Amino acid sequence: MQIENIPLLIFDCDGVLVDSEPLSIAVLIEMLTHLGVNISEEDAYDRFLGRSVTSMISTLWNDYGVETDIDFLDHMRSLLYERFRTDLKPVTGVGQAIDSLQCRRCVASSSQPERIRFSLGLTGLLDKLEPHIFSATMVKNGKPAPDLFLYAADTMQANPADCIVVEDSPAGIIAAKSAGMTVLAFTGASHARFPAFRQKIELLQPHAVFDDMDDLVHLVDQFTKSGHATSERPMRS
Q: Which residues, including other chains, have CB under 8 Å from residue 125's CB and lie 6 or more apart?
C-alpha cells in the first residue's frame, strides 16, 4: 500500500552527492587511451555521464569496437577507487542540505551498490542516507529508462507524482520525467562547466535548474507545497 501525499526526495549519487564525475571520466579516458581509442573529455561526458555499467559496455562495443571483459572492468574499478581515496570530495554544501531537509529521502544511482556506498562512506554522507540506497543493478533497464526511479518509489511506498528527483545528467533527467516525477537539475559539480552540457540540460526542461546546494531546501519546499509539481512550468533558481 502506497503512502499518500508524503514527498520523497530521490538523489542521484555521482555529480549530485559526490563530485566524482571528473575522476570517473579521467580513468575511463586513460583506460581507452591504452587501448588506442582517443576520446575527448567533453565527448566522454556526452556518451557516458549518468549511464550504468551495462550501458557503458554496450556503447564501448557499438561505437568504438572495445570489448570490455572482467579484467578490464576490475582494473578500471581499482584505478577509480584509488582516485576516490585520495581525491573524492562531497559536493559543496550537500551534507548541510541533507541535514536541513524535512522530507524522506533515498539514493537512486546508475553505479553499483558497492561503489555508491564506498563513495558515500569516503565523503561522510553514508550515515545520512542508509539504508535507502538503490542501484541500476536492481532493475532491468538503467537510466534513461524510468525503471530505477519507479523501483525506488515503489520500495519507499511513494507515489511517483510525490517524488522529487535531484539529477545532474541528461539520462537521469529523462528517466525522472518519464517516471512522472519532478526533477531538479543540479549544475554545480565540476563536470557541468561545458556550455554544451548546460544547454543540453536546459533543453530537457527540468522543473528547476540550480547550481548551489544552499538552494535545495528552498526548492524542495516550493515544489512540495505546490502539490503535484510535475504540472509546474520549468524555472531557474
A: 17, 18, 90, 94, 95, 98
